[in-house]
Design brief:
The structure is a homodimer.
Chain A (H helix, E strand, L loop, with lengths): L2 E5 L3 H10 L4 E6 L2 H10 L3 E4 L5 H8 L4 E4 L3 H13 L4 E3 L11 H6 L3 E3 L8 H10 L3 E13 L14 H9 L2 E5 L2 E5 L6 E5 L3 E7 L6 H4 L4 E8 L3 H11 L7 E3 L2 E3 L1 H13 L7 E13 L2 E12 L8 H18 L7 E3 L1 H5 L2 H13 L4 E7 L2
Parallel strand pairs in A: 1-2, 1-4, 2-3, 4-5, 5-6, 6-17, 7-12
Antiparallel strand pairs in A: 7-15, 8-9, 10-11, 11-12, 13-14, 15-16, 16-18
């Protein structure tokens, strides 16, 4: 049996470890022993308490495994992946680090390592779909709308997240790079609000976020944008806080104390945005890919609506982010995806067999991407 | 010629000093020499730089005058008035202090002093109208809607004030006492939003504020409420900031610094809410007084819309707050209002001659309270 190690046993890491035990001997490593003991109680996953910010420790820990799953917090992701590659181990990663992954490409090739990163839902599945169609059609435009939202809408934010407010606010600050007619443009965060209607969910609002990431480098489609979905009204509240200066990282003096307003704001927002244990939430995504295929102008639309699973108590966020990663992990273990070097998911999607496997794998978990095709006349 | 001293030469104090020179020899006292030198340039007002938080200084300064006008900041108002009364001088005041003025009533009577307080627009004119009608009819309900707003509406607040954000936010925190069917009820600040339509201004929203003050003690009308007016949308933004905790006075730790969130918030809001020099603004007020008069059920409505005066560059806030005070000052100087003790403006309004004088005085300044009377059938 293959041996897999999952680095990071947070909400998504734990769900992935539990999923992988069906096909592998799985060990989870985390600095938080509570996360690990809960995981050990619920599954046959082995657990090791270790500090993964110590890169020598990372290298030691991964040595005996066939594959590494990276699920550490984003700010640790790049260095962790570098250490894993230096250790000569294949890795499939969902840490969503900010750094340019291709800085590690030469190293991965030298080490003969297969590294797949950004392997979640968006980034992740969105890249996979575009990679797939880009291989078979002349894609002219790509649009991705995605959001994770609580079932119960509570004033004022109608929003919950399983991660820190500071990571959410980062999406409300960082300008978004999009591509229009072949040129990269920068749009302010929270800009270009647009209402979208989802049958079961109702109306949501979307705004530009900086989520295209590797797609801007790897794929030459002339029109690409990514937008995040929230319940209507969220944008205006976040714009208000940003405008006042509550998201500012510039220290200002308050009665003799120099503080960053953002640090106070994240403190105050934490209890509002914290996703409760077992709280019902869902993931909604719409991907539109249009272009010319066999001399016909055609649009493909993929719609996802996935909900918290009451049977397993696994959140939709963990399901939709984790299972693309565990599907790709199986492809790498089986050598069905074997491209050495750094691979964003669009490289996986470009292989039709791999693409279909990842979709089928999620379908078995009841994560269904509903496909609509229409010819544009 | 009578000698009048104005304590405090801020925006309203300066406007009052300039107004009073027509009928008196006027001296203005302020700690801020810039305020005073501007005033001296524009008028024949004498000026003295002095720190009025020193109460012995207050007593010395008022000694040679026939009348004192109190226009210090609210937090200094009560003690300043006490010092003036101890010095045996009559005073008409617009400092809008929080303390119960009637605590000074016995002292004023002992000193044979006429003291009129809250003598602005609201509190002020609102009290005057109710005092007037309460003397001649059986008033069943009193409603006051009032706001000072900028002409130009700028996102996100569409609000400007000539005073500190902390004084504005206090109105958004402090619960409002209102009277319903003879009983005092407490309502949260910013509660019971209600839209009102004003011909020239458009639609405004109103919310409960704690502005009835002395009326709850002096007048037994069974239904009384005061609401503040803003451009629509302001309430929701203020409720959001309050809900998050940005108006909190509880210290919390931010990276090792204990700060009150309110202190950061007022720092950040200051540039947004600061009324610019010469910035166009207006005051809008609607007062409804209903009851039984000569066996007929009748409603009186008074509507005020007053704007920044480009000729004098005096703001509407200073005009509508300052001229009721200077009108009453003239009544006191002429011994036409001579009730010894503490007098809120409802006591002045109860005298028909005084009431008419204050209205006529403002009409000459083009501050018009449009009266509508209708019998309720």
């Amino acid at each position: 049996m293959k041996k897999v190690v999952v680095l990071g046993a947070g909400m998504v890491g734990a769900a992935m470890a539990k999923d992988l035990v069906a096909d592998a001997e799985v060990t989870a490593v985390d600095v938080n022993s509570e996360n690990l003991s809960r995981l050990a109680q619920q599954s046959s996953v082995h657990t090791i308490v270790a500090d993964l910010s110590d890169l020598a420790e990372v290298k030691r820990r991964v040595a005996e495994f066939d594959l590494v799953i990276g699920a550490v917090p984003g700010f640790m992701g790049f260095k962790t992946m570098q250490a894993v590659i230096e250790a000569g181990k294949n890795i499939v990663d969902i840490s969503f680090f900010e750094e340019d992954p291709f800085e590690l490409d030469a190293l991965a090739k030298k080490q003969n390592v297969i590294a797949v990163m950004d392997c979640g839902v968006a980034p992740g599945m969105s890249n996979l779909f575009l990679g797939y169609h880009n291989a078979t059609m002349d894609v002219e435009s790509f649009e991705c709308y995605v959001g994770g939202l609580p079932q119960v809408r509570t004033w004022p934010f109608e929003y919950k997240a399983p991660f820190s407010p500071i990571d959410v606010i980062e999406e409300y600050i960082r300008p978004a790079k999009i591509r229009i007619d072949g040129k990269i443009h920068t749009r302010p965060a929270l800009s270009e609000p647009e209402l979208l209607h989802f049958g079961e969910i109702g109306t949501l609002e979307s705004f530009n976020t900086d989520g295209l990431r590797t797609l801007l480098q790897t794929i030459t489609v002339p029109n690409m944008k990514e937008k995040t979905l929230r319940y209507p009204g969220h944008i205006e509240k976040m714009r208000l806080l940003r405008e006042i200066g509550f998201f500012s990282k510039q220290k200002i003096d308050v009665n003799g104390c120099a503080i960053r307003p953002l640090d106070l704001t994240t403190r105050l927002l934490f209890p509002f945005w914290k996703l409760g244990e077992g709280e019902q939430e869902f993931t909604v995504m719409k991907i539109k890919i249009a272009g010319r295929e066999n001399n016909v102008r055609r649009e493909y639309v993929y719609d996802l609506l996935d909900r918290f699973d009451p049977a397993t108590q696994i959140s939709s966020m963990a399901r939709t982010t984790g299972y693309p990663c565990t599907a790709v992990a199986r492809l790498v273990l089986a050598k069905r995806f074997a491209r050495v070097g750094i691979n964003p998911p669009e490289f996986v999607g470009a292989d039709q067999g791999c693409f279909q496997f990842v979709l089928d794998y999620q379908e078995k978990k009841n994560i269904r991407y509903r496909k609509t095709v229409k010819d544009i006349v």
